[in-house]
Amino acid sequence: MGRPSRYSDEAWDRAFAREKAGERRGDLAVELGVSISTMNWQAAKRGLRRGVTPGWVDHRRRPEGGWPEDHVFHQGKAGMTPRRWRELLARYVAGEPIEVLSGAYGVSEGAISVRAQEMEMRKIDHPDAVWLPRGPTAAAAGAGAATAGRAGLAFDWDPDDPRASEAALTALETAAAREGRAADFLTLRRVRRAAGLAAEQREGPRPEMAFTFDPEDPKATYASIINAMLWAVEEKRHGDVRELESLLKQVERTFRDMGKG
Fold first, then answer.
1. Considering Cα of 187, then 188, then 191, then 193, what sign does the dihedral take?
2. For residues 208 and 232, is the Cβ–Cβ distance under 8 A?
């Protein structure tokens, strides 16, 4: 039979009456100093089944038409409501970094991704969503760094006149380097390779390729390498740029292996 309960039947009935009125069973279990399984067993003894027993609402199940805007989701400690989730996801679609929103609202990045899918608030669901650079470029330039956008990177490409095409692309690269748009600059470098546009090579000493490697500060290291890359493109040392791009990937892997990526 097991040992008798420390509470009388009347005390248990009062506890379940409070649950019926809207209090959470888990909170009541903590207050009474019993396990949730004990609460469930006492409820089963009384034939109480949430969502089945007449007048007994299962507050864990979403009602028809969705949750009210001020409904608090008790599964987490952040006190999120549908209204707060919509506010968070609107900021996410507008371009705020997911890690910043995670800290501001006290929810995990994984929870944000899941809720965005459930509420159809993923960036791929919104054509006007703002996408941020990622990886070492984002770390060096800062999330949300300035970009000219796709229209701003357009240029006249004439396969019959590669010299003119290369000059137009070089002008865009130089402008991106001068304005510190590292994400745009790296995009243009990929475009150059895809289009097969070789650039003029310059030889000679290259002390400007030196960079600072700080094992305790990945952001400063990434910034140092990208500054060297921006100098190289202004000087049309495209071979140096390729070497620095390869070096940037190696450094990123090194920091990732160190647990600091």
1. negative
2. yes
